[in-house]
Amino acid sequence: MPPAPRTRYRFAEFTLSPARRSLRRGGREVALIPRYLDLLVLLVERREVALHRQDIMGRVWADVVVSDGALSQAIRTLRRTLGERDDAVFIRTVSRHGYQFVCPVAEEEDDGTDAALPAEEPRPSPGAMDEVLARLLDPGAGDAARRDAAEELHALGTAEALRRLDRRPGHATAWAYLRDSRWDVEGAGEVPLLAPPAGPAAWAALAALRLRQALRLAGARWAGASIGGAAAGGLAGLLGGLAMVAFGGSADPSLLGVLALVGALVSGAGAAGVGSGLAAAEVLVRSRRVPALVVLGAAGGGLVGLLARPVASSLLAGLFGLDGVAIGGGFEGLCVGAAAGLGFGLATRRLVGGVAAPRGRSRLATVAATALACALGAALVSAAGGRLGAASLDAIVAGFPSTRVHLGSLGRLLGEDGLGPRTRVALGLGEGLLFGAGLAAGLTRRPRGPAVG
User: Fold this and answer.
1) How far is CA 204 from CA 171, 191, 210, 267, 284, in A?
2) Which helix or strand (DSSP H or E) is residue 176 part of?
3) What is the pTM of this model?
4) 163, 198, 233: which is the final residue of a domain?
5) What does the alpha-carbon distance between residue 268 and residue 262 come to, in Å, rounded to a whole number?
6) What does DSSP say about strands 22-25 and 64-65: parallel, antiparallel, or unpaired?
7) What strands lie across the sheet with 91-94, from one edge to the other?
């Protein structure tokens, strides 16, 4: 059968071609970032109805989760691009529901003709850039108004905007808006991180801006990672207890529940640290994403391990009289956190415009990549003499003379007497695999009610 004809849409002086992924005004290409073009196509194709915000988010931002104002900002950008000012000529806002495209549209077959001319060059009127700069620098303007001004400056010319901005009063905050908004304007120029006038004040302003945009989102990511890690730790503790019983002799059945609980607490705490680092990296850093995930994942895991070790030692000594038990700490958390950040970052490196929340096979691939990276990282830590959850649990159990079960009995399966190096590496592989899978599954879980603005 012949392929179905492709359709393009004409409205006002614009031509929208979904097949060629282009918007043209009078034959000239109009620059739009891919997600905003997807949003315009969706609104035009389903113009007969008012689309609910959650429906839009589920289609346009299907692989990422974005902060509350992302949709509102995208609509404002589309309206400005189409030349809409105060009247709803193109896009109508439906209160407490969503948006609808209301401009009359003519459909025609997209035969590939009318090749696009070069993208429109901005032609600012005299003083236009200074007027927009004044809006950006206005401390009394709201966040949305200042972000709109930043996007307009990118459209007029990023380099010239930075040159005129220089060190005017309030330039640090203005630089932060320009830096953050450059991802949302197709063809926007660079806003250098190190060159003047960027400095500590500008960096602090950028961090504050992104924290305001995504603090609640990061909290949800952290909670999901913690729950996923706790579930994986509980499973690991239960499997470890069953292995102890199977290969080490009899034991009180309540030991299995205790080991599962301890595993859940230890792994959940570790996942909380690593997950908070990964969530912070995703919401604070939009360039150099993979290195940021590695560094902040390592920092989160290392910090929790560093703080948890003395707390756990004090509890063991106070509750059970166990002194000097060798358990893991900051080194182990640092290494596993870095491995988790690397695996998660490489698997989601192509997802932009929000924090990664892949679906279907992409999510499974992300979970698998993170689990594999954590397994390799945990194996290396074990080979270097580090003590992860399994080895720490074995040391704790060994402090109770009434039990005859120890992980060291598993060494016979690998030709070792006791908890030798091969057994430790094998346990590290399994433990890291479960931890990474639980962490990534929790981290990529989408909230039931998407946060939209």
Assistant:
1) 12, 15, 10, 33, 11
2) helix 171-181
3) 0.79
4) 198
5) 10
6) unpaired
7) 51-52, 98-101, 91-94
CA distance to 13, 38, 87, 109, per residue, from 106 (Å) = 11, 19, 21, 10
Pair 189, 157: CB distance under 8 Å: yes
Burial 308-331 (b: 16+ CB within 10 A, else e): bbeebbeebeeeeebeebebbbbb
The answer to whether position 423 is within a domain reads: yes
122 occurs within a structural domain? no
Could you give phi then psi for residue 11, rounded to 5 degrees?
Answer: -150, 135
Provide the domain count of the chain: 3
The answer to whether 300 touches 278, Cβ cutoff 8 Å, is yes
Q: Distance (Å, rounded) from C-alpha 419 to C-alpha 381?
A: 15
Task: Provide the b/e sequence for 362-376 (b: ≥16 CB within 10 Å).
Answer: bbeebbbbbbbbbbb
DSSP for 298-347, written as a single string: HHHHHHHHHHHHHHHHHHHHHHH---S-----HHHHHHHHHHHHHHHHHH
Mean pLDDT of 39-50: 95
Residues 350 and 435 both lie in one domain: yes
User: Tokens in use for 123?
Assistant: 């032609």
Quote the percentage of the chain above a pLDDT of 90. Answer: 26
Per-residue pLDDT tens over the stretch 49-70: 999 998 998 899 888 887 767 8
Two tokens, residue 355: 């924090």
- In this structure, what DSSP letter does residue 438 have? H
Task: Please tell me the distance from the alpha carbon of residue 343 to that of residue 336, in angstroms, as a whole number.
Answer: 11
**Helix (H), strand (E) counts: the chain:** 13, 10
Q: What is the CA radius of gyration of the chain?
A: 27
Structure tokens at 137: 């620098």
Residues 226 and 357 in one domain: yes
115: in domain: no
Residue 182: which domain range? Answer: 128-198
Asked whether residue 2 is assigned to any structural domain, the reply reads no
Exposed, middle or buried: residue 245 (CB in 10 Å: 0-12, 13-18, 19+)?
Answer: middle
Q: Is 287 exposed, middle or buried (0-12, 13-18, 19+ CB in 10 A)?
A: exposed
Same domain, 96 and 19: yes
Residues 6+ apart with CB under 8 A from 48: none
Candidate from 89-103, 235-249, 273-287, 304-318 with smallest mean pLDDT: 235-249
Better-scored residue on pLDDT, 124 or 132: 132
Helix (H, G, I), strand (E, B) or coil at 28: strand
